[in-house]
Design brief:
Layout (H helix, E strand, L loop, with lengths): L1 E7 L2 E6 L11 E9 L4 H5 L9 E2 L4 E8 L11 E4 L9 H4 L19 E4 L2 H4 E3 L9 H6 L3 H11 L7 E5 L3 H12 L4 E5 L3 H9 L4 E3 L3 H10 L6 E6 L4 H10 E9 L9 H6 L3 E4 L4 H13 L11 E4 L3 H9 L6 E4 L3
Parallel strand pairs: 9-10, 9-12, 10-11, 12-13, 13-14, 15-16
Antiparallel strand pairs: 1-2, 1-4, 3-5, 3-7, 3-16, 5-6, 6-8
Helix pairs in contact: 5-6, 5-11, 8-9
Bound molecules: zinc ion.
């Protein structure tokens, strides 16, 4: 079978890889229907994180179950399934608290940008749809594999709810999904920080009440002007860079909360957090804990996170899927193995 392999920064290839098989009795093998490129894949693509060896890449997918191990009971051959980027058993003490991102038996994928995929801990990781979904729902289901759960996690971590003002730092797919999450969780004021027209449009479609195009001190002033002069109750930091964290720290009100979901590249301004009584919480998303609810919303067409995909290519053109995101020609690239 074929899949994507990153060889070096800027060098992702479509090449033959070993056929995945059932190794553990808790495994499933799925035929990937759609996969995508993540902003966090770009850390290696851009040479910010190291690529010591050629490595299969990708951690987002949805597809159809082809085979299951003897111990698997919740999914079967032919089921359409989606799983979070962080496989978990969904039964250990951490998972039972909803902390599925930190499952005590956590496992990993061998590159989801591929025709087929071995899913470890299939019972815990995968959620099946009741029937084969309509094709136009595939992007929104795929978005649950990471970006929508991650945006949701930012909002939950920051305590977003009715009556709260929210500012979102980052207009990538996660930031845009965080806007959707904040709206869905009942926030009456949701400010998207973006200076790109295509991304502003998605934020507005997701229900953002305000767009702030300014950055730095001007961006902070614009957010304060919308929040009684003090800053947002909740700021969702969806980038991970030091600049983004300073922006979040400046945009949050005294005593407010920041939800952190951007993979950290740089220090947090702990001094500012202390003197402003700012709370912070966040990390990798508890996908499995959120998946059933979010899948229900997608299947009912209540939310449509799939509109973050503005480029769709055959898997064989994975190199262009990366280049388009790297050059910010695309918000997020979806790839289909059998296109
Ligand atoms: Zn667990």
């Amino acid at each position: 079978m074929y899949g994507a392999v990153i060889h070096a920064p800027g060098d992702v290839r479509y090449e033959e890889r070993p056929e995945p098989t059932i190794i553990e009795p808790t495994d499933a093998v799925i035929r990937v229907v759609a996969a995508c490129v993540c902003g966090s894949d770009l850390w290696r693509y851009r040479g910010i994180s190291p690529v010591p060896n050629p490595t299969p890449i990708g951690h987002e997918y949805c597809g159809v179950v082809e085979a299951v191990g003897d111990a698997v009971t919740t999914v079967k051959h032919g089921d359409f399934v989606v799983g979070g980027f962080n496989p978990c058993d969904n039964t250990c003490a951490a998972c039972r608290k909803g902390a599925t991102a930190n499952c005590l038996n956590a496992a990993h994928y061998e590159g989801c940008q591929a025709e087929k995929l071995r899913v470890p801990l299939a019972d815990g990781t995968l959620v099946a749809t009741p029937e084969m979904p309509a094709d136009d729902l595939i992007p929104s289901i795929l978005a649950l594999s990471d970006v929508m759960c991650t945006g949701w996690h930012a909002a939950v971590s920051a305590g977003v709810g009715p009556g709260k003002s929210v500012a979102v730092v980052g207009d990538g797919a996660v930031g845009l999904c965080a806007v959707l999450a904040a709206v869905r969780l009942g926030a009456p004021v949701v400010i998207a920080m973006s200076r790109h027209e295509a991304r502003q449009k998605v934020a507005t479609a997701f229900g953002a009440t305000h767009i702030v195009a300014e950055r730095g001190d001007e961006g902070i002033a614009a957010i304060q002007a919308l929040t009684d002069g003090i800053g947002a109750d909740c700021v969702l930091e969806c980038v991970g860079t030091e600049d983004a964290r300073l922006q979040a720290s400046g945009a949050v009100r005294v005593g407010g909360n920041i939800g952190l979901v951007g993979v950290p590249h740089g220090d947090l301004p702990i001094e500012q957090f202390f003197w402003k009584n700012i709370g912070t919480k966040g990390g990798p998303a508890n996908c499995r804990a959120y998946l059933p609810h979010l899948l229900e919303l997608v299947l009912a067409r209540t939310i449509n996170p799939g509109i973050v995909f503005d480029l769709e290519l055959p898997l064989s053109e994975i190199a262009e899927a990366y280049a388009a995101m790297d050059e910010r020609r695309a918000i997020k690239s979806l790839v289909r193995p059998n296109a």
